[in-house]
Design goal:
The protein has 21 helices and no strands. By secondary structure, it is mainly α.
Length: about 475
């Protein structure tokens, strides 16, 4: 009993930290403790004098145990600590601090609610204004596979204002463009949980001061949401830098540079040296898809300038049939950045402000140029790049599906007969435009998507329809 009393007295008068002892915690249940600000919180208490205790030599474990005090051995520690806390804490200060915290939290909640209500009212007003100029609800591309919608076509429409602010010069926004993101938010069908999650990932990645391009490629491989596709394509193609602060100056410089080329070269389209090039471009543009879009005079004028300037600045290849198709996906994606319609097939491009049309034209030119830089040997003399890729496709199919390869060989079907156009037009004549745009999401996220990965897509086509190929006996016009 005496031993217990001694141990208890030791606990009470010891001012040193005892291993295992419970210290006062300021956090969830107490205000943050600052000795300078909360000097009144702790009442001063005289420290009892301590005298050094000479420990006698311990010879047995029982003696060691009887002479050692452990905080966890005291049965009434909890009660004593609570009593100490109640005695030391100034209740009035604690209650006053807690009351202030509750008041501040309530004010923040009210401010947040007011901001949300105000933002919702603005969206409704802008939606009402824009609905008067909105066109009919049409699909993106009219094709033979209208009834079969791909997962990528369900992605949300149009870019958010963040992407437009990064891709447009700092000029007054045209009436049709201003408020477009809010309108899209209000009329776009609700996203699925998976689509909303993917869109959030893209927004978070693009919102940083320096976009991680490697991470952007990983996300884009499975498809890019429509709202962020324009800015994503510009980054993936190398047209825009990863640093957000440099994008505005880059856009202004590249757009100015493009129209300097137009001013310098376009008037020479009727010169004797360039007549054939311009004439071929003028013939090929009406063959492009979609039909309604290509028949618009404004679209024809833009495409002619883009293709002619590219041909003049790349004399090694010049203009070759097939290059005209490669402008369309970029043009359609960048048009969707500025319009509220879900589709562009029946949209009158000439209704866009001239400044917006110039931005779309310059952006389409530079992104197409970046693409062609990787496959330019497809369009040089004798098109050696295409011949090489067709041969590689033949070798690939012979390895992955020998039966299909042997069947084509037995019927004397040469790969060049059907695969030349696949390489020359990157399958744009074989699949609807909306499918091409989705496919290019993946191509641009691959280091050599348009040159090497495209081969595997072509091989996948043959494997996908192997049953029909093996049943086919007449290959006069199979594709």
């Amino acid at each position: 009993m005496a031993s217990d009393a001694g141990r208890k007295q030791f606990w009470k008068r010891s001012g040193a930290k005892v291993p295992g002892s419970i210290q006062h915690v300021y956090g969830a249940q107490h205000p943050p403790f600052d000795p300078l600000l909360h000097g009144t919180l702790i009442k001063p208490r005289s420290k009892p004098p301590t005298t050094p205790v000479k420990l006698k030599k311990v010879s047995t474990f029982q003696e060691f145990e009887s002479n050692t005090s452990d905080a966890w051995d005291l049965g009434d520690d909890d009660d004593e600590l609570l009593a100490i806390a109640a005695e030391n804490l100034n209740t009035e200060v604690v209650m006053e601090t807690a009351h202030k915290v509750i008041q501040n939290h309530s004010k923040l909640q009210e401010q947040h609610k007011f901001q949300e209500e105000h933002l919702q009212e603005e969206k409704q007003v802008e939606s009402a204004e824009l609905s008067s100029v909105a066109c009919g609800d049409n699909r993106l591309v009219k094709s033979v596979s209208e009834g079969h919608t791909s997962s990528s076509s369900d992605n949300a429409s149009e870019n958010s204002s963040m992407q437009r602010s990064q891709s447009l010069p700092q000029t007054s926004a045209p009436p049709l463009v201003s408020g477009m993101a809010d309108y899209n938010t209000s009329v776009t069908p609700a996203l699925t949980e998976r689509e909303a999650s993917r869109l959030d990932k893209f927004k978070q990645l693009l919102a940083g001061p320096n976009t991680d391009l490697e991470e952007l490629r990983k996300l884009s491989w499975s498809g890019i949401p429509k709202r962020v596709r324009p800015i994503a394509w510009k980054l993936l193609s190398g047209y825009l830098p990863a640093n957000v602060d440099r994008r505005e100056s880059t856009l202004q410089r590249k757009r100015k540079e493009y129209f300097a080329f137009v001013e310098q070269y376009y008037d020479s389209r009727n010169d004797e040296n360039h007549q054939d090039t311009y004439r071929q471009i003028h013939i090929d543009i009406p063959r492009m898809s979609p039909e309604v879009l290509r028949l618009q005079p404004k679209v024809t004028e833009i495409f002619e300038r883009i293709l002619f300037i590219w041909a003049i600045r790349h004399p090694a290849s010049g203009y070759v049939q097939g290059i005209n198709d490669l402008v369309t996906p970029f043009f359609v994606v960048f048009v969707c950045e500025y319009i509220e319609e879900e589709v562009v097939e029946n949209f009158d491009v000439s209704s866009l402000p001239e400044e917006v049309l110039q931005n779309i034209e310059a952006d389409s030119y530079w992104c197409m140029s970046k693409l062609l830089d990787g496959i330019q040997d497809n369009y040089t003399f004798a098109q050696p790049g295409i011949q090489k890729k067709v041969k590689m496709l033949e070798e690939l199919v012979s390895r992955i599906d020998e039966q299909v390869h042997r069947h084509l060989d037995q019927h004397e079907v040469k790969y060049l007969q059907f695969a030349f156009r696949w390489m020359n037009n990157l399958l744009m004549r074989e699949v609807p435009l909306r499918c091409t745009i989705r496919l290019w999401d993946t191509y641009q996220s691959e280091p050599e998507g348009f040159s090497h990965f495209h081969l595997y897509v072509c091989a996948a086509f043959l494997v996908k329809w192997r049953k029909e190929i093996l049943e086919e006996k007449d290959f006069q016009n199979p594709w």
